[in-house]
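Please go through the protein record below and see whether the fold suits the sequence. Record follows.
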Amino acid sequence: MLFLCRFLFLFLLGGTGVLSRPHVRSEDTMNRFVKFFALVLVALVSVTCGVSVNTSDTGNGGTADVAQEVEVVEEVAEVDKVEVDNHPSECDFDGDCADDGILCTIERCDNGSCYHTPNHVACNDNNACTMDECDLQAGCQQKALTCNDDDPCTADECLPATGCNFSHVNENACLGLGDECNQAKCVTGVGCQFFPVLCEDGELTTIDMCVVGIGCIHQKVKCGNGFSECIASSKCASVACVDGQCVETKTDCDDGINCTTDLCDSNGLCQHLPMDGMCPSDSSVCTEAKCELYLGCGQAQVSCDDNNECTNDFCEEGKGCQNEKIPGCCLDEGDCNDGNPCTGDICGPDHKCFYAPPVCEDDEVGCTIDAAEPQGSLCVCTHKASDAICGQGLRCRETVGCVPCLVTADCNDGNPCTDDYCEWSDDGNKCSNNKRCDWGGQICIPDAEVQNGYRCENDPIWCDGDYKCDDQNPCTDNKCVDHVCTYPGVVCQAYGLCQVAECNPTKGGCIQNDKCDDENPCTDDSCDDSTGACTNLTVAGCVACDTHEQCPSSGTQMCGGSSLAISYTGECEAWGHRCRTHEYVCSSDACGTGYCNSETGSCAFQEKCDDGEPCTDDACDYKNGACTNLPVPGCEACDTHEECPTLGTRVCTVTGKSVMYMGECNIWNNRCHYQEDTCKSNNCQNGSCNPETGQCVYQDKCLPDGNPCTALCNWDDGQCNQLDPWCN
């Protein structure tokens, strides 16, 4: 109990600030209040625990000790009070602290005292190759950054923008290491690594090895007298046993022609590929160097064909290809503009221009000439009256046609027995030649001896009007002349050499028909206005029709000539009575000729460079039309499956690849279908194709050393004699 009371007593005295000197101002009211409250608690503890601060030591050790401690606390409090009063605070705020003159420090006020804190960020020089620090005495300091990744195969460097960089390879780090059979190379992240030298020469007649101090050795395989038989490395070599050693001789395919590439194919046959680029030019712009099999270099004429039907193509020395335009030749309607807005400019299938005559709407007035006349850039139809068309003394009125008269004088028939005058009406003018004496069956008899030149007498046979003379024929005029019916026919006159005029048997009046219309929907009819000569050109691929059902179905195709393909839409044009079509001109270029396939009716392309051999890859240079035909290694030509090697048959190509045939013929390119294996080498094995089996074989690069705990080859990097860490 005494120990607890002593502890509480001392703790409360310490809380008053007597036992510790706080760094605050002595005048602080709150501080004084806290001390007062703590002293009250001290008194309460003293009463509770039986401690008297005024009692001296009477043998009660506990009471005397507490009293002594209280006296000591009071003395310390007095001393502290004096010290606080004699040491006032340095600052109240950060701004009260004086600047120490160091740019990278920050002045702080903490519990009445000033401090200077280093700010390392203020020393950043934006250089990733330095370490930035703030020294309280010297200010900003920059120390160089050391870059070292302990990898001799990297170039250690520091980039101011990013810092340490180890991406550059030090190629010279491993120089001088290794020997004739092991090459030292840098491996990033690892260092210098040793890789064995490969001595494989690809010859089956040698054993290949590497000897330190010597290098690669190719020891001839022994043959004869019980040793192995000699095997050629490919079909392009022969091998013989000479003095116990296999000697291989490569097939000589040299044809003596300097411009051919000579090679031996997978079947052991020599191939000679002409290469035009190896032939010298003769400096003529009209010839080009050409390599011919068995002949060598020569010169061939340059092709100047620009695929334009309207040019004469030829080569002229000193100038090169010339393409002169053929006068009067056209490719489209734009080449046929005659400057007359009233004609139809047409480019015919024979590449010749012709101009369709103008067609003006008929005003249905028989005696007017309907003609098209150019007025600037426009074509205007005119309808001019022509008395000549009417004939028989009739006159032409533009709005109604042929009329007997325009004035009274036109109606004088020279007959004294008629009363002549010209009668006008909206339907047309007509001459009135009324009979004199025309009443009660009277007839007029000319008589020059009487005053009026005629006399009236009775007529036993007469008609009293035209209405009694109707013969129901619109192409005749019904007339009662002198009381006698007459039926003169309507006379029609053509406007020009290309029209035929006739009376309309239905409505009457004259109509104009095209002279050259042969009533065949599948001909283009035209007429020469100056001569009246007719032209009726058959339209390629045209099918006459009256209904859609009479036309070929949509998508049907046929050829309209050697280079024109026609596709039908299944529709009939009502105005022309032709089945509607789309036409396609089969285009050509430097590498071939376009034509229409008569079997399909669509455009096809005859390639210039197709040599007809399925086992060559044919290519064409579209700039000059030069051809290249390279043999395809391993290819077998065929038309049927039976002509191909059986399924599983294998051969080696001249490029060292393994080919396995599938027993099938590809009907699209006439080649036997096969699968190809490149016999690719890896880190621990050399791959090659066995010419006897046609399969890929792989030879280990590392020879066995007899140690079961040695992993002979490291598959990751190809290193030989690697220890197996799992082997005991």
Helices lie at 2-15, 29-49, 61-86, 387-390. The two ends are 73 Å apart (CA to CA). Residues 9-34, 51-86 have pLDDT under 50 and may be disordered. The CA atoms of residues 331 and 349 lie 9 Å apart.
